[in-house]
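Progress note, sequence design subtask.
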């Protein structure tokens, strides 16, 4: 498991809306998963203990059986209402606190077995996903303390013996497996969703600035092992501010989507397309300078020929300027490589726009 040690040294930054939504969904689903399976488990226990007949009346056993699920149901409802309505913080500490309360309610009221103490590892699992080293160590201590406390309390109590005890333990272990497996699936699904949201531009659905540099750094790290041509092209829509000022931002967004579509149409398996920012688009190609220039010209001509109507029926066409650079071993960083393409883009703008330029060394 990867541990981000740098994160420990920094002051925690506020969660983005996307990350808050993901954490909220994880906790909400976690609560409902545990409540649902706990209701089923306690009904199994109720039938076993009522059949035995030596643990009190069925009313007493039923009360003990549904006590914890009802409490968790209340906790889940309060969580959903309060956190969603008031958008309360869901940082790492709050998330683990909620999970610990949830697990404590489950294990503290298990009076018939000590198999459910395995539930105490649930916060540790979440701790591994949030990748906070300090919290993992603290949570390990909390979880083992809960496990030890639960074991000794139940071990000293008068719990069923013999065949009933075996059935109760097996049902408890099945509960543990089902709950933990479902929670891991939920956490993985939502963290993968978050990773996708973080790396994708919401308007054009292309990769964003962060994803572009991640891919570029990956390409350059592979270059030392297997040198092969790597080119970058950067495109900027000419006079785009005038487009927004004249026709509004909604129409400007439409123009951006059209250019994004052209980039996707022209991208091959060896191309990586991103919206670098604003009206700038970028492409990483495993091609030499000649092929990269050809690709850039194709994109430029395609966009120039595109007619984009406004809501009032006015038809407009636009142009782009493109800068191209090819990687050289003397470039020490990905930023230095990108700057060469950016300088070529500036040259294209200064020399009349609607053209492809390369940076001449």
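Output:
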């Amino acid at each position: 498991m990867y541990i981000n040690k740098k994160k420990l040294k920094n002051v925690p930054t506020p969660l983005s809306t996307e990350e808050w939504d993901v954490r909220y969904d994880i906790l909400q689903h976690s609560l409902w998963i545990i409540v649902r399976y706990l209701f089923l488990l306690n009904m199994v226990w109720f039938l076993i203990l009522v059949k035995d007949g030596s643990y009190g009346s069925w009313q007493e056993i039923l009360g003990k059986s549904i006590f914890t699920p009802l409490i968790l149901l209340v906790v889940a409802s309060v969580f959903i209402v309060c956190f969603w309505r008031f958008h309360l913080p869901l940082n790492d500490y709050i998330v683990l606190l909620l999970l610990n309360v949830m697990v404590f309610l489950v294990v503290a009221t298990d009076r018939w077995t000590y198999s459910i103490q395995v539930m105490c590892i649930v916060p540790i699992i979440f701790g591994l996903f949030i990748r906070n080293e300090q919290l993992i160590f603290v949570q390990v201590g909390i979880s083992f303390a809960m496990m030890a406390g639960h074991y000794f309390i139940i071990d000293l109590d008068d719990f069923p013996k013999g065949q009933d005890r075996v059935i109760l333990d097996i049902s408890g272990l099945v509960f543990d497996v089902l709950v933990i497996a479902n929670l891991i699936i939920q956490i993985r699904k939502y963290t993968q969703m978050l990773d996708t949201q973080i790396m994708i531009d919401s308007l054009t659905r292309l990769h964003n600035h962060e994803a572009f540099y991640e891919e570029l750094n990956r390409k350059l790290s592979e270059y030392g092992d297997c040198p092969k041509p790597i080119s970058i092209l950067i495109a900027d829509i000419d006079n785009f501010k005038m487009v927004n000022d004249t026709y509004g931002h909604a129409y400007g967004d439409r123009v951006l989507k059209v250019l994004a579509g052209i980039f996707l149409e022209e991208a091959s398996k060896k191309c990586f397309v991103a919206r670098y920012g604003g009206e700038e688009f970028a492409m990483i190609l495993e091609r030499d300078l000649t092929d990269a220039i050809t690709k850039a010209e194709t994109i430029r001509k395609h966009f120039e020929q595109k007619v984009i109507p406004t809501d009032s029926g006015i038809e407009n066409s636009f142009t782009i300027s493109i800068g191209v650079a090819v990687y050289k071993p003397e470039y020490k960083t990905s930023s230095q490589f990108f700057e060469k393409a950016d300088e070529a883009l500036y040259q294209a703008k200064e020399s009349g726009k609607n053209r492809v330029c390369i940076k001449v060394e």
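The chain is about 65% helix and 10% strand. Work on this subtask will continue into the next period as scheduled.
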